[in-house]
Amino acid sequence: MIRIVLVGDIGSGKTHISKLFQTPYFSADKEVKKIYKTSRKCFIFLRKKFPNFIKTFPIKKKELTSVIKNNIFDLKKIGIVVHPFVRKRLKKFLEKNKNEKIVLLDIPLYLENKMYQKGDVIIFLKTKRKDVVKRLKKRKNFNKNMLRVLRKFQLTLKQKQEKSNYILVNNYNSANIKNKIKILKDKILNDRSSS
Fold first, then answer.
1. Could you tell me if 154 and 110 are in contact, meaning their C-beta atoms sit under 8 angstroms apart?
2. Does residue 58 have a cis peptide bond before it, meaning omega lies within 30 degrees of 0?
3. Closest CA to 82 of 116, 143, 36
4. Average pLDDT over residues 124-144
5. Cβ neighbours of residue 48 under 8 Å, at least 6 residues apart?
6. CATH number assigned to the domain covering 1-24+99-195
7. Using alpha carbons only, what angle is made at residue 23 by residues 108 and 14, rounded to the nearest 5 degrees?
8. Tens digits of per-residue pLDDT, 100-112?
9. In angstroms, what CA-CA distances link 6 with 55, 104, 105, 111, 120?
10. What's the confidence (pLDDT) of residue 195?
11. pLDDT in tens, 20-44
12. Per-domain residue ranges for the chain?
């Protein structure tokens, strides 16, 4: 099984690109949302850490946002609680799809949390910053300060690009990107079978 991991800027289109690969894919963001909705254990851990902010189950995004607004470094503490739950779900996903040729992982802090495994194929999504910002502004809960905070906890785009095996330019043109993905997918399979 080839594990392909997408990395890039926040809003660079990782979720959209993941779907276009037409292969089983794991979205950490989706799993985190499910954990907040369904895991009472996660709620209890977070409530113990942040009793002034986390009060209701299922966990509300508004409560988590107020934790981070109060102290940006608490974002790391939230991560420390939530990551073991995400890793457990990732393990189940990989087990379920162990016979697939390719699986795709969309994990925002994949490099930062040292989740890299030997043989993983990292694709850097290259986008224009102005296009990313334009797209992010269309999101319902867009918050410029929160975006700045989240970027502080990530490697720079240059560092992500340097750690990647391939670069995929996303200009947000679906027909164009579909073709690029097909070519890249074939290249990855060929490179792997010839190595």
1. no
2. yes
3. 36
4. 76
5. none
6. 3.40.50.300
7. 30
8. 999 999 988 888 8
9. 34, 8, 7, 10, 11
10. 63
11. 899 999 999 899 999 999 999 999 9
12. 1-24+99-195, 29-96
